[in-house]
Amino acid sequence: MAQFVFEADLHGLLKLDTPIPNAPPARWQRKAKDTGVPGPSPAAGLSPMKPANRSHSSSKTPSRTPGKPGSKIQSTPTKAGGDRYIPNRSTMQMEMANFLLTKENDPAEESPTKKEQQKAWAVNLNGFDIEEAKILRLSGKPQNAPEGYQNNLKVLYSQKMTPGSSRKNGRYIPSMPDRILDAPEIRNDYYLNLIDWSSQNFLAVALDNSVYLWNHTSGEIIQLLQMEHPDDYVSSVSWIKEGNYLAVGTSNAEVQLWDIQHQKRLRNMISHSSRVGSLSWNSYILSSGARAGHIHHHDVRVAEHHVATLAGHTQEVCGLKWSLDGRYLASGGNDNLVNIWPCTQGDSGDFAPVQTFTQHQGAVKAVAWCPWQSNVLATGGGTSDRHIRIWNVCSGTCLSAVDAHSQVCSILWSTNYKEFISGHGFAQNQLVIWKYPTMAKVTELRGHTARVLNLTMSPDGATVASAAADETLRLWRCFEMDPIKKKEKEKANSAKSSIIHQGIR
Asked: Is 425 within the bounds of a domain?
């Protein structure tokens, strides 16, 4: 039976077109409701912007169905309706589509003469070049914008994607801490330095009037000391580079030295008149900063330990750190000053700062030296400042400054990446990893419910420990090194150590 193709005329009515011989069955045809009526039932064209109207209006003139007396014969609806949209074939360029499909299978290499002929034919037949009309291409070069064309949407016509092999994938930084430790009765005091991690993998934590050691390897916890008087408390702790001795500053102006192996106090050095809130080692010289604003150098080898006094602050010294090469000592105080001290005395016999930075508008507790640039120092200001600044201590210039939008309590440089991490107080109480030297924010680590008081780093440089006023210590594996780079670093370190042993022998 010949199939009929229906098309919607301009008035939405149906007209019968010429039958197409040997046409395949139309899948969109509906079956007649009455099996006695042969052929498809007519359907009107639908508007693509409106929902289909599926109700049919019947003619008023009754008619009978063959074989069923008294039944009504269905007639052509007087209103447009139906359930399918039939496109107008006259508007479809079937020959053009066939030509484009067959052209895609042609060989890619064609002579210039043949290409010119095809272009001329396309222009004569269609009024435009086929190649110019192809907007979405499966292959070939992207189209270039015409000369002098300005695109308001900033579309890049000729941008090439970076090959997948040359893309640098960012490393994975866990957003949750690797471990959480309880720190009951830790003092919520911005000016104190209460945690430090030794090269022998011991984490020292000052909890009110006691000091505890946590062995990261075995998980063992040792109570190293407890103050004799209940009103006294521990205000600072600092490990010597070798990790076998711990310096402890107290609220009663003492500086104690403890032997970890024997868990024994070696000496008690008294020279300050107020609490000792900051400590830093430079070989056998131990520097201590006090609330009175003075910094004392202690030579722990001799009986007369107090060898020098640095007077450059008018208020409490809360940040103190020797550079890795031992040339400079950086100090930050509650007077908003940052002083850079030399390791040797001047001609007059007194120590004087070689640089004094006054740009901070709040107390400066966070001071940290860059491990791969010995003359670069990072400092962070308190609540009224909230800025992190990078300094060149040789020239005295501020290399960069960034607004952290919260109190800066501590800064640590990474030894595995060109990055550093900062601990903050109000209002987010978060840790932030920064890229250096761009100062771009890499990520934020959240979890503490009160301000972060101190940060310290594991000896392998992979884990950062944060102590906060919420009485918890959290360990973040944020600088874990790639296994391949880690092996290369260990190999380089072993080579250096072998060279040193050969030189000593």
From this structure: yes
Q: Which of 269, 231, 180 is nearest to 448 (CA)?
A: 180
Please tell me the total count of domains within the chain. Answer: 2
Neighbours of 341 (CB within 10 A): 23
Task: For residue 161, give the 3-state DSSP assignment.
Answer: coil
pTM as predicted: 0.66
pLDDT at 1 > cutoff 50: no
Instruction: Give the tens place of pLDDT for each residue, 80-132.
Output: 555 666 666 666 677 777 777 776 566 555 566 777 887 788 777 766 666 66
Q: pLDDT tens digit string along 435-454?
A: 999 999 999 999 999 999 99
Q: Which long-range contacts (CB under 8 A, 24 or more apart) does 479-488 make?
A: 479/414, 479/415, 479/416, 479/417, 479/419, 479/421, 480/171, 480/416, 481/416, 482/171, 485/416
Sign of CA dihedral 110, 111, 114, 119: positive
Are 30 and 66 a contacting pair, CB within 8 Å? no
Percent of the chain as helix, strand, coil, to the nearest 5? 10, 35, 55
Distance, CA of 445 to CA of 423 (rounded, Å): 9
The reply to whether 46 and 191 lie within a common domain is: no
Contact 328, 373 (CB under 8 A): no
Containing domain of residue 61, as a range? 1-87
Report how far residue 122's alpha carbon sits from residue 128's, in angstroms, rounded to the nearest whole number. Answer: 6
Tell me whether residue 47 is in a domain.
yes
Residue at 498 is within a domain: no
Backbone angles phi, psi at 308, to 5 degrees: -160, 155
Residue (of 386, 375, 385) closest to 422 by Cα position = 386
Among candidate residues 117, 128, 122, 120, the one with its CA nearest the CA of residue 99: 122
